[in-house]
Amino acid sequence: MEMLSVQEEKERKAKSYKMLLWFAMISIVMVFAGLTSAFVISKSRPDWVSDLIVPNAFVVSTVVLLVSSVTFHLAKLSIRKDDRSKTTLFLLITLALAIVFIVCQFKGFNELFANGFVPTGSTGTITVSFLYAFVIMHIAHLVGGTIALLIIIYNHFKQKYNSTQTLGIELGAMFWHFLDFLWVYLFLFFYFYK
After folding, report:
1. Distance between CA 60 and CA 100 in Å, rounded?
2. What's the rounded Cα separation, in Å, for the pair 17 and 82?
3. Rounded distance, CA 165 to CA 154, Å?
4. Tens digit of each residue's pLDDT (9 = 90 or more) over 40-58
5. Is 51 within a domain?
6. How much helix, strand and coil, in percent to the nearest 5, is found in the chain?
7. How far is CA 162 from CA 26, 80, 124, 168, in A?
8. 72 with 146: CB under 8 angstroms?
9. Is residue 168, in this structure, part of any structural domain at all?
10. Which domain, by its residues, includes 27?
11. What CATH number is attached to the domain comprising 25?
12. What is the pLDDT of residues 111-157, one digit of tens each?
C-alpha cells in the first residue's frame, strides 16, 4: 500500500472538510426554503398583514454584513501573502462587524415592537411571526459563524495559518459568504414579497 505524501494528505483533508461544509450549507438552505414556502402559502390566511415595514436597522445590518464579507475575503487574501498584520486587522474588523450586525438585528426587533408588530398575543400576526422566525434562525447561524470566526482568530494568533496553510480561514470565509448570501436573500424576500 502506497503512503500518501504530506501534501496529498492535506489536499484530501481539505476536500473532506469542504464537502462537509457544503452538506451543512445545503441543509441550511433546505430549512430556509421550507420556511419560505410556508411563508408564501400562508399569504392566503385572513390574518395576513401586508403593510409590514422592514425595519431600518435591517437595512443597516445588511450593509454591515456585506462589508464584513469583504473584510473576511481580504483576511483570506492577506494570509495567502503571509501578511499576518493585515490578516489580524481584517479578521478583527470582521468580528466587530458581526457584533454590529447582531446588535442591528435586535434594534430591528425593537423597531417592530415599537410599531406594534409583535409575533404573539392578541395583536400578533402570522406575518410578523414568520419575520421573527427567519431572523432568529439567521442570527443562530451567524452566532455559529461568529464562534467559528473566534476559533479562526485564536488559531491565527497561535500562528497556525500561513501562505501554505489557509484551510481554516478558507472554510470560515466560505461559510461567512454563504451567510451573507442567505441574509441578502431573506432581506430582499421580505422587502419585496409582503
Report:
1. 10
2. 23
3. 15
4. 888 888 777 777 778 899 9
5. no
6. 80, 0, 20
7. 29, 7, 52, 11
8. no
9. yes
10. 6-46+56-192
11. 1.20.120.80
12. 888 887 777 777 777 777 888 888 888 888 888 999 999 999 999 99
